[in-house]
Amino acid sequence: PMTTVAVLGGGIGGLAASYYLCKSPQVTKVILLESSSRFGGWLWSTRRSDGAVFEHGPRGIRPAGAVGRNTLNMVEDLGLGGEILPVTYTHVASKNRYVYVNRQLHRMPSGLSGLLRPVPPFSRPLLLSLATEILVKKGKEDDESIHSFVSRRLGKELADIAVDSLCRGVFAGDCRKLSMRSCFPLLYDAEQRRGSLTLGMLLGSGTSIQESWAQWSLSRGLESLPESITEYLQQSGRVQLHREAAVQQISPSASGWKVSEDIYIYIYIYIYIYIYIYIFNLFPRLYSSALSSILPSSCQPLIQLLQDISTVTVAVVNLEYEGSVLPVAGFGHLLPSSEDRGVLGVVYDSVPFPQHNRPDGETTRLTVMMGGAWFQEVFGAPEAATEERLLARATEAVRSHLGVSTAPSWSRVTLQRDCIPQYYLGHHRRVESMRRFIREKSLSLSVIGASYDGVSVNDVIFSGRTAAEELGAV
Ligand SMILES: Cc1cc2nc3c(=O)[nH]c(=O)nc-3n(C[C@H](O)[C@H](O)[C@H](O)COP(=O)(O)OP(=O)(O)OC[C@H]3O[C@@H](n4cnc5c(N)ncnc54)[C@H](O)[C@@H]3O)c2cc1C
Ligand SMILES: C=Cc1c2[nH]c(c1C)Cc1[nH]c(c(CCC(=O)O)c1C)Cc1[nH]c(c(C)c1CCC(=O)O)Cc1[nH]c(c(C)c1C=C)C2
């Protein structure tokens, strides 16, 4: 049957779902409703008039695996191939990874020598941890925190320092609460299937082809991606794009869903209500809680499950310094929660992407990420946090971690509220129950976006594709 599909939310997930849907002969019309004045959600870049580019959301996309290849195919299809800025595995930004521990920057162990001898801040050679890991018995729990899983298999020190900081650099979250199974499904599977992470890594999953890029960006910033998808959708002639169209309520009707937002759109959508309308929820700024607030009370169990997925707030502080000020080269450094609860890490944007520097003259661009699961504890309520205070804390971190005592020549503070969903223990069961409820009630609804099956840009785009495929599209 020919269908009209409503996509709620024009973040990268909603745009990707619309992109795949509009390629399907089965879908006659797509209506994309975005509450804010721009599409792209967290993909948000500042392009200064002098040519410098700063990212306030994601800054590097990793091309590995099927989800990574999928995004690159989309990028090529959109004609953005010529704008890709790749960072190879041999680039210093890929080879050098740092943690700031005991008031010092430490390069993370790498290569053979890094495996064989202990490298501070670690007291054991990594090889020893990996070798003994093979002998550790498989866990019996259905779900386990990342910290507990890694302490059990690789030792407490790696869990406290390396994994604690890694989780802050990906989820801005607390590895003692995050679920191993939902956050790192490949490693969880390695234990389940091979009984060991080391063996799992050595034997491989059999599918990954070694790629030469560690990550990539786009010459005018990652926001070019949602911009290009929007253009593509406009040109397709099959997608109606609406900005400033916040969905307030959706309710089931005999033939699909009734979608209501502000008056103008309400009337507009109403015309299409008698056609079968599928609703894709694309993850709202308020994430799962935004979907829960627009669902009817007949969906109470679903509303509850959605509300149980929490999110964290991150303060993103972009800084520009005159001259080449960094004492080290790498992608950036992370801090374990034992070192500083408020500052998650610092990205050395100029190292992987010097093309985004101001073209005339030498500058260094850095981004300090703060808060996350510790936001409230350190900075208080997000609405009360002032830009001045966040900026002062960020420049102080750059001074003490990297020895840069000059003041930045340019800065921008963005408070990204509720920006990263947290997959706490039991997350997989919540998502399963949600999908079961939708199936059992035969609701023509798909839930996609960062709240469910992965938080990276690649995962979110792939979830849009999967939902479109389930509708017979693609
Ligand atoms: C600071 C930061 C850094 C990141 N870094 C990386 C990185 O380096 N690499 C990486 O892969 N990923 C990164 N991510 C993750 C990635 O950017 C996000 O997970 C992804 O962009 C989420 O996309 P989404 O479409 O699910 O949600 P969103 O981007 O939140 O989109 C949802 C959209 O729905 C709209 N909306 C909300 N409510 C309604 C309503 N009622 N009606 C209509 N519209 C509504 C919102 O305005 C929004 O535009 C980062 C995220 C953040 C915040
Ligand atoms: C959802 C939010 C994400 C943030 N970054 C990523 C996502 C999906 C992508 C990402 N960032 C890092 C990894 C680890 C794996 C790897 O290959 O290194 C992934 C998948 C690590 C990282 N993130 C930041 C830094 C400085 C690093 C260390 C890099 C390295 O060791 O090479 C910066 C940073 N990005 C995010 C946050 C919250 C953050 C905090 C400092 C968001």
From TrEMBL:
Where exactly are the transmembrane stretches of this chain? Answer: 263-283
Q: What class of enzyme is it?
A: oxidoreductase
Query: Where does the record say this protein resides?
Result: Mitochondrion inner membrane
The Amine oxidase domain, residue ranges: 12-259, 295-471
Q: Name one GO molecular function term.
A: oxygen-dependent protoporphyrinogen oxidase activity
Q: Which domain of life does this protein belong to?
A: Eukaryota
Q: How is the cofactor bound?
A: Binds 1 FAD per subunit.
> What biological-process terms (Gene Ontology) are attached?
protoporphyrinogen IX biosynthetic process
Q: Write out the similarity annotation.
A: Belongs to the protoporphyrinogen/coproporphyrinogen oxidase family. Protoporphyrinogen oxidase subfamily.
Q: What is this protein called?
A: Protoporphyrinogen oxidase
> Which gene is annotated as encoding this protein in its UniProt record?
ppox
